[in-house]
């Protein structure tokens, strides 16, 4: 969908105008009401529309207006409006008209918001317009998106266009993260995923791919053990953005990229196993973030590294009872082959900090079902050795509507991964503190670097309750791009 910013709405197509709490009309809504002989107020009186945030009311072909239809959208209390409010409002309008047959839409803000707010509305519109239809070959015309043009009318056109450079890049990153999460595992495997990442060099990123020969030479026994039964070779993809000062230490983002996780020999139940195509959601967030940083030419040095692996059962599969040696030299007893993501991250984390000496490390992974029990699917869990980073991420999560909740770490939980047979084991004590013991495992591979682990098993897939948020139309949510971009913007750019 093409998005433009202009001083006035388009002369044709649909128009959307804001209304505040208790159905208080904005100047734009008042003008249409006056020209249509009170059609706006009559429609509101006959409905339950009250101007609540993201609430909509559609009026077809009102008299006295050239618009094919008018959509009223709620902005809530005028003094409590935020960028999130604007995003959701624009998203609600786009979601309502996306397959309506309408091709052109104008959202008229005029003096109701500044340029950055208009650009945030554009972000909401883009997020709502995402569709994963590439394999749906039998769609009827009335099931296909018709909306192709969006004009956002705002007084500060230049400010909106400047802000859109950044927010549009974030939309690109989220769309990319959703795409790779949604792709089926017969299409996206470690090898094809690596090739897709290589194509991101067109965005200005420096790309490097490590293969199994190189990983073997590096001693990555933990990662290689997970993928040894797959017919597809495991890969590590490195994405580098050098937009900051020369010589300044980079921010490091690491993602788990299990393109499919059967559980291996510790086979998962059949019901719901298809959703394990999304077990690469952590890598999707990192890939999307790097796309966003490059797209908006972020003033920061950043490196994204993702471990791309498929976990399958066959005669060569890793077994419960195996002991592997990670790149760090740490020996790991494998008690459950379905606790595989932490093994992949162990080697990637160690390699990344050893090679790049980063300022800080953030890893993302769909790591444990236990985090769903604790936090549901609206918040991700964070585990950190740095109060500063944890606070920065919490603030960025609230600002981007990708909230997080900090979970504990400490000596009491370190005991959960102790074993008599190796340095550590890859699962904790039964069902107790599953997410925390997984984070304690990862902590073994970050030394004293400032670090945060984000468990996104509840937020990366399933739509995150998208029925309540029009910005989330997709099973693959793209969660993580927005919080990480905000984290970088607010704390690490000059």
Task: Please provide a written account of the structure.
The chain is an alpha/beta fold and 494 residues long. It folds into 2 domains: 2-169, 3-Layer(aba) Sandwich (Leucine Aminopeptidase, subunit E, domain 1), CATH 3.40.220; 188-491, Zn peptidases (Aminopeptidase). The chain has 15 helices and 18 strands. The chain has an 8-stranded mixed beta sheet, sandwiched between helices. Helix 4 links the parallel strand 6 and strand 7 (149-154). Helix 5 (157-182) packs antiparallel against helix 9 and helix 12 packs across helix 15 (481-491). The radius of gyration is 24 Å and the shape is elongated.
Which class of secondary structure composition applies to the elements?
A: alpha/beta
Gyration radius over CA: 24 Å
Helix proportion of residues, in percent?
25-40%
Count of beta strands: 18
CATH architecture of the largest domain: 3-Layer(aba) Sandwich
At CATH level 3, the topology of the largest domain is Aminopeptidase
Main sheet specs: 8 strands, mixed
What is the level 1 CATH name of the largest domain? Alpha Beta
